[in-house]
Amino acid sequence: MDQRYIDELTGIVGAENISTEILELEVYSRDPTVVKGRAEVIIWPRTPEDVSEILRLANKIKKPVYPRGAGSSLCGGPVPVKPGIVLCMERMNRILEIDIENLQFLAEAGVSIREINDTLKPHSLFIPPDPASEVSCTIGGCVANNAGGIHAVKYGTFRDWVLGLEIVLPTGEIITTGTRTRKSVSGYDLTGLITGSEGTLAVITKVRAKLTPLPESRMVMTAFFSNPEDAGKASFKIMVGNLNPSAIELLDKTTMDTISQYLRMKFPPAGAMLIIEFDGPINEVPDRLGKAGSICKDEGAIEVKVSESEEESLKLWTARKTAFQSLAILGKASILIEDITVPISKVPEMLRRIQEISKKNNTLIPTFGHVGDGNLHPHVLYDEENSDEYTRAMNATDEIFKTAIELGGTISGEHGVGVLKRKFFPLEHRAEEIMLMKRIKSLLDPNNILNPDKIFPLEAEA
User: Fold this and answer.
1) For residue range 90-135, what is the model confidence (pLDDT) as tens digits?
2) CATH number for 240
3) What are phi and psi of 63, to 5 degrees?
């Protein structure tokens, strides 16, 4: 980037909030995926006005801007695929208001979900969506991707909790959307439009969201099965059994094995496991847990065990949340982190088909995920320097997405489309629908400077 523009950006945010250091450019040009980018400059705005001025300059010089939270995206969402400005929101990290009377809060975009819930805990409140990266992921990034996580099966995704936003449009206007009330049908739902738009329509600077009281009690149970398909059948029966679990998570054998090594945990010999949680009134939870255990046994569970302490439950959730990191033990250089979601009745079939796809392509595909709401994370592993492995991995990925769509599903339940899944977008969306989305993008971002080349397939991929 021309030095005069670097100087102009420095004048907006101050020298302490901008960097062109090579190492930092490298770090901020990536997320945990295989997608690689090239940042020219990293900027940490402190105010919405900073963001506005940066975007106005970017529009003037036609320079791409890539909003970034904690960089925990699993689809290449914040990666600067064209040389440009990485707009990192992590220093806009204040919780501005906790309105206990109205069960809501207002926070800047860069506050982590863990920090929000730690602040709310003394008030016996929380915001339920629970991404695995909650220690680091930011509220702005979670809203931009409509993140879900472990407890989405009962509590929904961030879309179900956001009341309003402060945003900066690509052309620099600062806009407030939504309301403090729990209901509103006044005008178009701009909050809903921005939520899940993956940083392509606006930069989120503040989030107002609902809160709810912490449940009176929580209990966790594990159930082990011979294969993932049987575990999927048990999950479906629990979901339609009027039991209302707060979480049902699946780990296949490969993932169980890597977690065992990574955390030095021991699991019974099995082909898959479910981690099942119930929360609510203390006089109701044990009964629901018991009924779920009976369903698991009816579906062939090898072993069913209720956690005996909060510490034991916490260890299980730690194991689940480190599943992705544990896959490094398998020694593959590259991982395609998929995020397909199918109707819950189709979960057993999808799990079976993933195993078939893995065998057919001789490709390792560890699978875990939120089976209670049909959201599965098959991870396609390969060595990118091995051309045969790469080809087989790409074929397997194609088949996984096509199978999900065939079963009435979606290419992304919570991670977003970003770069990794954009070529599969037309599998799910008709040309007329895609054109309407592009018209909305063009209206708000006429110069296509905000997170370009995300979501929609490039011409070469179409």
Assistant:
1) 999 999 999 999 999 999 999 999 999 999 999 999 999 989 888 9
2) 3.30.70.2190
3) -110, 130
